[in-house]
Amino acid sequence: MADEIIHFVEIIIGVFLVAVFGMIFGLLTKGIDRKLAAHMQWRVGPPVIQPFLDVKKLFCKENVVPRNAVAWLYNVAPIVCLTSVIAILLYIPMGSIPPILKGYGDVILILYLLTIPSLAMVAGGFASGSPFATVGAQREMVLMMSYEFPLATTIIALGWKISTLYPGEAAFSLTTFTKYPVWNIMGPFGIIGAIILLVVMILVTTGEITKVPFDIAEAETEIAEGVFVEYSGRNLGLFYLADAVKTVVMASLIVALFFPYNLSTYLGSSIHLPSIAWNAIDFLFYLLKLEIVIFFSMTFIRVSVARFKVDQVVKVYWGYLTLAALIALVLIALDILL
Amino acid sequence: MSETYTIPVGPLHPALHEPITLKLEVSGEKIIGVDVFCSQVHRGIEWIGMNRNNPIQSIYLSERVCGICNICHPLCMVQAVEKAAEIEVPERAEYIRTIAAELERIHSHLLWAGVAAHEIGFDTVFHYTWALRENVMDLIEYLTGNRVTKAIMMFGGVRRDIKENGAKKLREGMKFYLEKFRKIEEIFLQDPTIKMRTRDVGILTREDALKLCAVGPTTRASGVPKDVRQDFPYAAYGDYEVKAITPDIYNGEVHGDVYDRIVVRLLEVKQSIEIINWALDNMPSGPLLAEKNLVRLKMKLKKAEGEGIGRVEAPRGEDIHYVRLKAGEEPFFSWKIRAPTYNNVLPWIPMLLGGQIADVPIVAASTDPCISCLNRVTVVDVEKKKEFQITKEYMHKLSVKKTRRLMRNGR
Questions:
Q1: In a 3-state reduction of DSSP, which class is residue A105?
Q2: CATH code at B318?
Q3: Chain A residues with CB inside 8 Å of B15's CB?
C-alpha cells in the first residue's frame, strides 16, 4: 500500500517536471530555430528568448471568443492540445532516464496520442466559425491523414525486426528500442532500410509540427494562420506552447527510435562518476541530439523550400514517402529472411 | 465536399499588401467563383492636382501615387504636360530619364520577386532578393538623392545630372547585377518547389489577355508582345529599339502561367541592365532643362492651352496620364491617371477560376498589383443611409441623359 502511494507521488512529481521541461525546452528550441533560420536568410533574427517573451505577452492579452464560435469547444481545444502532447512526452525516455509511465504504454499508444493534438486543432478551427479557420481545419485533417501511414509503416518495420530477433521482449515498447539500437541489429539491407525510414520520419516530423513546406493548415499568406485565425490571448498561447512541446516530442521519438545511444554505456567503464552525474550527462547529450534532429527536420527544411499545395502535400506523403517506407519495409523483411 | 462557401480575401489580408477585396466562392479547396471589389482606398490625388496645386507641385504629388512606381508616374505626367504646352526636352535629359526609369524597373522587379517568394512561403528567397535589391536602391539614392521618392523629373528635363562619378558607380552596379543574374535565374527558374507552385498555375490565355486589355509583364507572359517602349517609344527608347520580352525567348514556349511571368520579369531585369549600359555609353552632352527659370516655366504653363497624353511602360505595364491645360488657370484643368493595375485586376478572374485557395496569393501577386493606383467611386447617400457603387449601366444611363440635355441646349 505504502509503495503504491510513493509510486503515485513519484509519478505526479515526474509529470510536473516533464511538463515544465517540455515547455521550457520547446520554447528554447523555437528560439534557437528562429535564430538559425535568420542567419541562413541573411538576417540577424530575434533574441533566443523571444518565444518566452511571446508566450508571456500572449498570456497577458485579452482572450477574444468570436460571436459565432462554439465557445466551450473553442476554449477547450487548446487545453486538450497541450495536455495530450505533454502526455506523449511521459512515454518517451530522456537519455538514460526511463520514461515516467514506463510499462503503461508503447509506441502504438504514442501513434494514437499523436493524432489528438491535431484533432484538437481541427475541433478548435471548426469551432471558430470563420471561413479561414474552416479551410485550415480541413487542411489539417488532410495533412494528418497523409502522414499517418508512412509514420505507422516506419514504426511497424522497426518493431517487426526487434520482435523477430528478440521474441521475449515487448516489441513495441520504447525501452526495447532503446536497449537494442536499430543500427546494431540490422544487416546490410536493414541498414539501407533504416536510413530510408529515418528520412521518412524526419519529413513526417516536419508535417507533424506543421512547418514549411507542409504548413498548409496555417499558411499565413493564404488563409491567415488558418485554424488559429480567431485565436488570441491565452488560448493562442496554449496552442503556441503545445506546438513547442510537440516539436520536442517528435524529435524525442526520432532520437528514441534511431539514436538511443547514451554516453554512459560507452564511457561508463573508463570514467568513474556517480550514477546521478552520468544521468545528467546523458540528459545533456540527449538535448544535443534533439537539437540536431530539430535542425534537420525543421530549420533546414523550412528555409530551403517553398510551401506545397494541399494536393502536392498528399502526393508527397501518400505517394513518395509511403512508397519509400514500403521499400524500406521490404528491405528489412529481406534482412530478416536472409 | 459539395458544400460551397464564400471566403473573403481582403480588404485586409496577409497576402495583399494594399486594400482590395476578392470574394471567392469555394468548394473544398477549389475556386468556383471570383468577384473583385476595388475602391477601398481613394485619396483624391487627381482632385488635388486640379484644384490645389500648381503644375510643378503636382510633379511631386504624382510621385506619391505609388511608392514603387515613383519615376514612371511623374515621367508620364511630365510627358503629358510637355505635349500640352509644347515644351522640347533636351536630349541628355531624355537619356537620364531612361536610366532612372530602368533603375526603377530593376528595383521594382526584384521587389516583386521577393514578394512572390514570400507568398509561396519561401522566405529565404524573399530575404535574398531584397538584400540584392539594396544595391540598386543605393544607386538610386546616389543618383537622385532619395531612395524612394526620387524627385528628379521636371517639365522640360530633369533636375539632376549623372556626372563622371555617377556613371562609374552605375557601371559597377550594372556589372554586379549581371554577375548576380545567373544566381537569381537559378533560384527562380530551376528550383523545383518554385516550379511546383508556379507552373500551370493562374493561366491567362492569349485571347483573354487581349480581350481584358492586360498590360505589362502580365500580358507579355501570355505571349502578347505589347510594350510601350517598343510600340510608342518615348524618352531615349526610340534610339535603342526595345524588343518586348515574351517567355518564348527563354524556352520557346508560352504557357501564360505564373512561371512565365517570373521568366518575363527576370529577363526584363537583364534587358534593363543592357539599356542602362547602352544609355551611359551613348549619352549626349547638353543642357538638362528646357527652361531653367521656374518662375518663367510656371508662367508659360499658366498661359498654355491644350491637352496631352503621356504613356510610359511602368514596371507593371502601361501607365497613362491625360492632362488638359487651360490658359489663365494655374492648376490642371483636367488630370486623369490610368495606372497599369487597373487593367490587370480583371484578368485575376480567369486566372483564379478552377484554381485552389493556395493559388490566390501567388496569382494575385503575379500581376504585381499596386492597389493605390486603382479607383472606382463608392457613393454614400448620407440622408438615405445607402451605399452603392456606380456600375457601367448606371454610368451609361447618366451619359445618355447628359447627351440629350446637351443636344437640347445646342438647338
A1: coil
A2: 1.10.645.10
A3: 221-222
Domain with B396 in it: 381-411
pLDDT at B166 over 80: yes
Whether residue B1 lies inside any domain: the answer is no
Same domain? For B390 and B285 the reply is no
* Among candidate residues B339, B366, B391, the one where a domain is terminated: B339
Binary contact (A306, B357; C-beta < 8 A): no
pLDDT at A172: 74
Place of cell 510600340: B231
Residues 6+ positions from A184 with CB-CB distance below 8 Å: none
Same domain, B257 and B387: no
Would you call B5 and A304 a contact, using CB atoms and an 8 Å cutoff?
no
Residues of chain B contacting residue A215, judged by C-beta atoms under 8 Å apart: 121
For residue B411, pLDDT over 60 is answered with no
Nearest to A41 among B127, B194, B360 (CB): B127
Residues B387 and B256 in one domain: no
Residues B281 and B216 in one domain: yes
- What ipTM was assigned to the predicted interfaces of this complex? 0.76
What single-letter amino acid sits at A230?
E
Count of the separate structural domains present in chain B: 2
CA closest to A307 among chain B residues:
B121
Using pLDDT thresholds of 50, 70 and 90, give the confidence band for residue B1: very low
What's the number of CA atoms in the CB half-sphere (13 Å) around residue B272? 28
The Cα angle at residue B293 between residues B292 and B297, in degrees rounded to 5: 100
CB atoms within 10 A of CB A104: 11
Please check the confidence at residue B379 and state whether its pLDDT lies above 60: no
